């Protein structure tokens, strides 16, 4: 069982420490193994270890069953493709325990696939024949027009020849024409081919025919008005109808090869007019018959797919469930007798009773004569980290886990992130008007969360929906800080009373702060509205926000150092308490804790001391008098003491810890260098062997490496104390930028449009103001403040105590499998 810490060092919180874990072993009889793993998957509280890691997937016990599951998954994917083609969606049925067995489902899927494949093959054949007949019908029409026009021109020519023959033959008449007219037997018999060729290939087709036959053909082609469905590809293609007249079999063979090369579909065309009419009638009749047959086939296919769609989700869930079960069974080791399986895995301590109940139910339901054996193993392995989160805390925990998963039972920053993350965001985004807009948008996501959770959302919308409670907290804190800053879209309001200042006389209204005197008590909450628009607004707010940023930063860094104390106490590491926590706390507060104290004293006393001068000369001239920069008596002595403590704390962090670690190592392994005696008992030998291996591992302890590591850690903390404090000034910078941008949009867009006394300009101004507010302030500024708050937590806060080198608890759970599918 994993070692627990001294839990009394900090208040009990569900998220403060990860759940106590234990390594368990379960010995399961073979006849109840499948049902046992199924019940454990429903429970979802055990993470199985792979005890067959040295075996390939094909050498494992249940490789054949996994292959069957993969084949079923392939068939289900085939059904899904067919349903999407037919525009049939799977019925969203409630997933219940299916009474259909795995073998029966396999047979049923095989029968449905065979039937659907046969129906599709028949439909494809019929559709191809149907498309060929449509093309044939088009060819008959177009070629009929060719022959009809040719016949008319031939008849007219014949009449002209007869008219010439009836008259006296003139010397200008061609001799050949006379000979042909007198001897019809010498006329050449021409063959013909007709069909369709793709329009984009028509010119090349004609050119190749002309070259191959040396011009001894007559080609007539005409484009078809609408694209036709190609029988081979099934796609709509623009084509030309053609008729080729040729002489001789050699020319015919060449033309046939060229037609094949250009994917020109050929169709027979009878020369006799009666046969043409008969062919047209026959083709039209076959087209109508095939159309009816195809419609019946499609209706039959749709009925099969609808019957599949009603149970598809159930079958898909069962197939994936079975595959997950067999994958898990493959991780179990088989006993030598092959009568039982041995499983090992991690589970929370609180789940022990639930796991044993599931094992008992599986034994009863499978009618096994032998029950499963459950036992807890002792181990030195590091357990996985498991936090029980809900829909509110899960998003905050994901923010922490994105940096690194907490080490087992390490103090979890997520507890504080729930409050500090939205608060630091709000410090940079302080405007209660913008906060209300964010809150309303988030409220919509929260109210409709059940409906939205079941829908497919886009990537950005999915992220927003997952972090809806984070955004809600950010918006609420933004309203709070906006009330403190007294900004509503950059406009101040007297919400908590009247301003403490008023004009001495009526002339002061034109000169902002000149002539203002304090006539009432201090404004009760937040910034007095009279500061906004005054000459000293920027210097006052700059000073306020900058000092406030330093105070917040020092407070959060101190919290991080205090959490390192709780970690050290929990893991009983006194070295880290005395030689890491205490010197770090002294160093940080000797410098920046002192600066925070000066800021508070200056605010309380109203002193005009220059804090920059105080901090700089604290290092450069610590013994000089402070003069007018002295805030309280004894300040010079306090500065000397703090400076001395800061200087002492650096070697305090650097030197003792490596020496003590070396001494601790030598003490721990002082008696482990002796060899084992001959004939030692096996169990004792194994235990000593374990210690021997441990001592061998610790012999790799290198003092130089430990010292260098500690030196790097010390330098990083000393320099980081300065840089991290300066990094918190981003709170001031982004707050100022947000306020100024909001003020610019209000003054230079909305008020300027209002002052034009033009309705069109006013409408344009309002539209520009709305788009600028939403696009820049509510989207870009929100993202910017979010990323900066994220950096402050990951770098400035968490690096004080958080190692984040653990790994997540990943239990075998059917619920998690369904979530991954969604």
From TrEMBL:
Question: Which topology term describes how it sits in the membrane?
Answer: Multi-pass membrane protein
**Single Gene Ontology MF annotation:** proton-transporting ATPase activity, rotational mechanism
| Region described as Disordered: spans on this chain | 157-176
- Keywords of this protein's UniProt record, alphabetized? Coiled coil, Hydrogen ion transport, Ion transport, Membrane, Transmembrane, Transmembrane helix, Transport
State whether keyword S-adenosyl-L-methionine applies.
Answer: no
Coiled coil segments of this chain: 95-136
Instruction: Please report a single Pfam family linked to this protein.
Output: V_ATPase_I
Write out the transmembrane intervals. 423-447, 468-485, 548-566, 578-601, 637-655, 759-780
Q: Which domain of life is it from?
A: Eukaryota
Its job: Essential component of the vacuolar proton pump (V-ATPase), a multimeric enzyme that catalyzes the translocation of protons across the membranes. Required for assembly and activity of the V-ATPase.
Can you say what this protein is called? Answer: V-type proton ATPase subunit a
User: Lineage, please?
Assistant: Eukaryota, Viridiplantae, Streptophyta, Embryophyta, Tracheophyta
């Amino acid at each position: 069982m994993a070692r627990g810490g001294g839990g009394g060092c900090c208040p009990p919180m569900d998220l403060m420490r990860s759940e106590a874990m234990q390594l368990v072993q379960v010995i399961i009889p073979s006849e109840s193994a499948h049902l046992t793993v199924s019940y454990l998957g429903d429970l979802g509280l055990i993470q199985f270890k792979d005890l067959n890691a040295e075996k390939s997937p094909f050498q494992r016990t249940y490789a054949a069953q996994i292959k069957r599951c993969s084949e079923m998954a392939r068939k289900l994917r085939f059904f899904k493709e067919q349903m999407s083609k037919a525009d049939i969606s799977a019925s969203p049925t409630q997933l219940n325990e299916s009474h259909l067995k795995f073998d029966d489902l396999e047979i049923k899927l095989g029968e449905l696939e065979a039937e659907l494949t046969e129906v599709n093959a028949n439909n494809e054949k019929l559709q191809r024949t149907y498309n060929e007949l449509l093309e044939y019908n088009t060819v008959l029409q177009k070629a009929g027009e060719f022959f009809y026009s040719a016949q008319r021109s031939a008849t007219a020519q014949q009449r002209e020849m007869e008219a010439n023959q009836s008259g006296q033959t003139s010397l200008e008449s061609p001799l050949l024409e006379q000979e042909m007219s007198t001897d019809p037997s010498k006329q050449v018999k021409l063959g013909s081919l007709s069909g369709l060729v793709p329009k984009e290939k028509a010119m090349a087709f004609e050119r190749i025919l002309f070259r191959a036959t040396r011009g001894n053909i007559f080609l007539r082609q005409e484009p078809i008005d609408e694209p036709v469905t190609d029988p081979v590809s099934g796609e709509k293609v623009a084509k030309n109808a053609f008729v080729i007249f040729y002489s001789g079999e050699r020319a015919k063979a060449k033309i046939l090869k060229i037609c094949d090369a250009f994917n020109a579909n050929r169709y027979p065309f009878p020369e006799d007019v009666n046969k043409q009419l008969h062919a047209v009638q026959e083709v039209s009749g076959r087209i109508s018959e095939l159309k009816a047959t195809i419609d019946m086939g499609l209706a039959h296919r749709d009925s099969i797919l609808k019957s599949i769609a009603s149970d598809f989700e159930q079958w898909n869930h069962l197939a994936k469930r079975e595959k997950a079960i067999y994958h898990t069974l493959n991780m179990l080791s088989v006993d030598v007798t092959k009568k039982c399986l041995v499983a090992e895995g991690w589970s929370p301590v609180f789940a022990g009773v639930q796991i044993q109940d599931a094992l008992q139910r599986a034994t009863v339901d499978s009618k096994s004569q032998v029950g499963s054996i459950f036992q807890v193993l002792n181990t030195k392995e590091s357990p996985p980290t498991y936090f029980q989160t809900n829909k509110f805390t899960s998003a905050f925990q994901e923010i922490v886990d994105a940096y690194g998963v907490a080490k087992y039972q390490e103090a979890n920053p997520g507890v504080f992130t729930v409050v500090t993350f939205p608060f630091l965001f709000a410090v940079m985004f302080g405007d209660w008007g913008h906060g209300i807009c964010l809150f309303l948008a988030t409220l919509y996501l929260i109210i409709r969360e059940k409906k939205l959770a079941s829908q497919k959302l886009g990537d950005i919308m999915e992220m927003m929906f997952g972090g809806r409670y984070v955004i809600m907290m950010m918006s609420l804190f933004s309203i709070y800080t906006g009330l403190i800053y007294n900004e509503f879209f950059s406009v101040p309001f007297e919400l908590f009373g009247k301003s403490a200042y008023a004009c001495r006389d009526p002339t002061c209204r034109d000169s902002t702060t000149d002539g203002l005197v304090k006539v009432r008590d201090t404004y009760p909450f937040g910034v007095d509205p009279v500061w906004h628009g005054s000459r000293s607004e920027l210097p006052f707010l700059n000073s306020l926000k900058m000092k406030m940023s330093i105070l917040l930063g020092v407070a959060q860094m101190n919290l991080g150092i205090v959490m390192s104390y709780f970690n050290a106490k929990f893991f009983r590491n006194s070295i880290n308490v005395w030689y890491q926590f205490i010197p770090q706390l002294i160093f940080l507060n000797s410098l920046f804790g002192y600066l925070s104290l000066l800021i508070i004293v200056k605010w309380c006393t109203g002193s005009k001391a220059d804090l920059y001068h105080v901090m700089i000369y604290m290092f450069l001239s610590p013994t000089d008098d402070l003069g007018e920069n002295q805030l309280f008596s004894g300040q010079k002595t306090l500065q000397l003491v703090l400076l001395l403590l800061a200087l002492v704390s650096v070697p305090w962090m650097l030197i003792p810890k490596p020496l003590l670690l070396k001494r601790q190592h030598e003490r721990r392994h002082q008696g482990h260098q002796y060899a084992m005696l001959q004939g030692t008992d096996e169990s004792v030998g194994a235990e000593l062997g374990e210690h021997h291996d441990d001592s061998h591992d610790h012999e790799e302890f290198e003092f130089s490496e430990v010292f260098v590591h500690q030196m790097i850690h010390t330098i990083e903390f000393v320099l980081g104390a300065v840089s991290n404090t300066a990094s918190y000034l981003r709170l001031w910078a982004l707050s100022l930028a947000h306020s100024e941008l909001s003020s610019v949009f209000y003054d230079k867009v909305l008020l300027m449009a209002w002052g034009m006394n033009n309705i069109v300009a006013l409408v344009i101004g309002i539209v520009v103001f709305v788009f600028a507010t939403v696009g820049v302030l509510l989207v870009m500024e929100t993202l910017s403040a979010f990323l900066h708050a994220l950096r402050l937590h990951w770098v400035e806060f968490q690096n004080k105590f958080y190692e984040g080198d653990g790994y997540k608890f990943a239990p075998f759970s059917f619920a998690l499998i369904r979530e991954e599918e969604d």
